[in-house]
Write a structure and sequence with these properties.
The protein is mostly helical. The protein has eight helices and no strands. The chain is elongated, with a radius of gyration of 34 Å.
Length: 239
C-alpha cells in the first residue's frame, strides 16, 4: 500500500497520469460490466481496446517526456550553480592577491619590476557574465576598469628608459598612481560581498611570517613523498 506522503513525493503529474490511465481502463470495460450487471450480452470491441491502449500509451509517453525534460532542466541549473560557485570562489582568491598588489602601489608608488596585475579569473567572470546577477556583473566591470587604469600606469612606468623614469618619479606621477590604486581598493568590499552572495567562498587572508635576509622560507613536507634535496629547516639558508 502506498501512503499519501509517498504519493506526494511522486508529484502531481504522476498522479494525473495514473488517474487518466484508470479512467481510460474504466472506459474500456464499462460497457461489458454494464451488460453483465443488467443481464445483457457483452461483446469484445477491438476498436475500444485499441483506442484505450493508445490513450494510455500517449498519457505515459507525455508523462515520461516531461520528466526527462524536467530532469535536464534541473541538471543544467545544478551545473550552472556549480560553475558560478567555483568561479566566484576562485575570483575571490584572485581578488585577495590583487588587493595585496594594489596596496603595494597605494603605499609605495608604481615602481614594480614586472606586471603584477594579471587577472585571468576576473576576465573569465566578465566573459561568462550570464552566470551572475546583473548587479554583480556591473560591479565587476567597474572594478576591472579601475584595475586596468592602475595596471596600464604601472606598466607605462616600468617600460620607460632610465632617463624618462626619473621624470616619472616626480611627486605628481607617484601620487596619481597611488590615488588610482586607492580608488580600486575601495571597490573590493562590495565586490566580495556580491560574490559571496553568489555562492563564492571567501578565504580569510593568511599572512606569511617575514623572512630574514639570507634565509629562505620553510616549506612543508611534499605530498608526493620525500624530495631529493630535502633539508632541515635550519639548513635552509641561501648558499
Amino acid at each position: 500500500m502506498i501512503d499519501a506522503e509517498r504519493l506526494m513525493k511522486l508529484g502531481r503529474p504522476f498522479l494525473i497520469a495514473c488517474l487518466l490511465s484508470a479512467l481510460g481502463a474504466i472506459f474500456a470495460v464499462w460497457l461489458g460490466v454494464a451488460a453483465l450487471i443488467f443481464g445483457g450480452k457483452s461483446e469484445y470491441d477491438p476498436t475500444i481496446a485499441v483506442l484505450t491502449a493508445t490513450l494510455i500509451a500517449v498519457i505515459w509517453y507525455t508523462y515520461y517526456t516531461r520528466e526527462v525534460l524536467q530532469h535536464a532542466r534541473v541538471r543544467d541549473e545544478q551545473e550552472r550553480q556549480r560553475a558560478r560557485r567555483s568561479l566566484a570562489s576562485g575570483l575571490l582568491a584572485e581578488l585577495e592577491w590583487l588587493e595585496n598588489m594594489l596596496e603595494q602601489v597605494y603605499h609605495d608608488g608604481p615602481f614594480i619590476m614586472y606586471d603584477i596585475f594579471e587577472h585571468p579569473l576576473l576576465l573569465q567572470a566578465i566573459s561568462q557574465s550570464t552566470l551572475f546577477n546583473p548587479v554583480t556583473v556591473a560591479k565587476l566591470s567597474k572594478f576591472h576598469a579601475l584595475l586596468r587604469d592602475v595596471q596600464n600606469g604601472v606598466n607605462y612606468c616600468r617600460n620607460m628608459d632610465p632617463t624618462q623614469r626619473r621624470r616619472a618619479e616626480a611627486p605628481l606621477m607617484n601620487e596619481t598612481m597611488r590615488v588610482k590604486a586607492g580608488f580600486a581598493i575601495q571597490g573590493l568590499p562590495e565586490i566580495c560581498e556580491a560574490l559571496t552572495s553568489e555562492g563564492g567562498e571567501l578565504q580569510k587572508r593568511v599572512i606569511s611570517p617575514a623572512v630574514e635576509v639570507g634565509k629562505l622560507p620553510e616549506i612543508p613536507q611534499s605530498p608526493f613523498g620525500p624530495r631529493r634535496r630535502d633539508k632541515k629547516p635550519s639548513e635552509n639558508g641561501i648558499s
